[in-house]
Design goal:
It contains five helices and six strands, in the order ββββαββαααα. The protein is mainly alpha-helical and 191 residues long. The strands form three sheets. It has a two-stranded antiparallel ribbon. The longest helix is centred in the middle third of the chain and has 37 residues. The radius of gyration is 21 Å and the shape is elongated.
């Protein structure tokens, strides 16, 4: 149909295409940019999706959410393990911080949140592998991505608080990782 959304392959050098870098607080390595299209003319050989381009984009985003969920769960687990190791090295009142009840409680809540995100991500991935995921809007996949990002943010924020000034300093990198995680809130939607 004439008014249907279509998808085309464009190149940065195509007439009418401009790309402007976007400064961001985190995720600097992915090259965020604003794409502007002005009177771009492309031939039929550049047509990727002749009809229903929005559904095609939704399918891409749905798969991207699953990828992010799995990736971020692993990231959260690694961050938590590194944080626990660092907390074991820090001593207060003659004991490692991990021996203090309030720290143990905080770490236990984080571990539960990461495990829940991992279970939800696994369930969503298994559904997708079995062909049971909705290709346009998969609620379990979206929930998995949301849970994974929220768990990772909780890990990063809590470790910063537990480690005090060291958590905010650049020595161990938690502040940079937390900044990058904040950028995933919007990535592929669902937040």
């Amino acid at each position: 149909p004439e008014n249907d959304l279509r998808a085309f392959w464009i190149e940065p050098g195509d007439a009418g295409v401009s790309r402007t870098p976007v400064a961001s607080a985190g995720l600097r390595c992915i090259g965020l940019a604003r794409l502007t299209l002005s009177d771009v003319r492309l031939g039929a050989d550049r047509l990727l999706v002749p009809a229903d381009g929005l559904s095609h984009a939704q399918r891409y985003l749905a798969s991207r959410r699953l990828t992010l969920a799995a990736t971020v769960v692993g990231f959260a687990r690694g961050l938590l393990e590194r944080g626990i190791a660092r907390l074991k090295e820090r001593v207060r009142y003659g004991r490692p911080l991990t021996d203090l009840g309030n720290v143990q409680g905080a770490l236990g809540r984080l571990q539960a949140q990461v495990w829940a995100a991992q279970a939800l991500s696994r369930t969503a991935l298994l559904r997708a592998a079995a062909g049971r995921a909705d290709l346009l809007w998969d609620a379990p996949g979206s929930a998995a991505k949301h849970a994974a990002v929220e768990a990772a943010l909780a890990v990063g924020r809590t470790l910063q608080r537990l480690l005090g000034a060291e958590g905010y300093a650049g020595e161990i990198g938690f502040e940079r990782q937390l900044r990058d995680l904040e950028g995933l809130v919007a990535g592929a939607g669902s937040q």
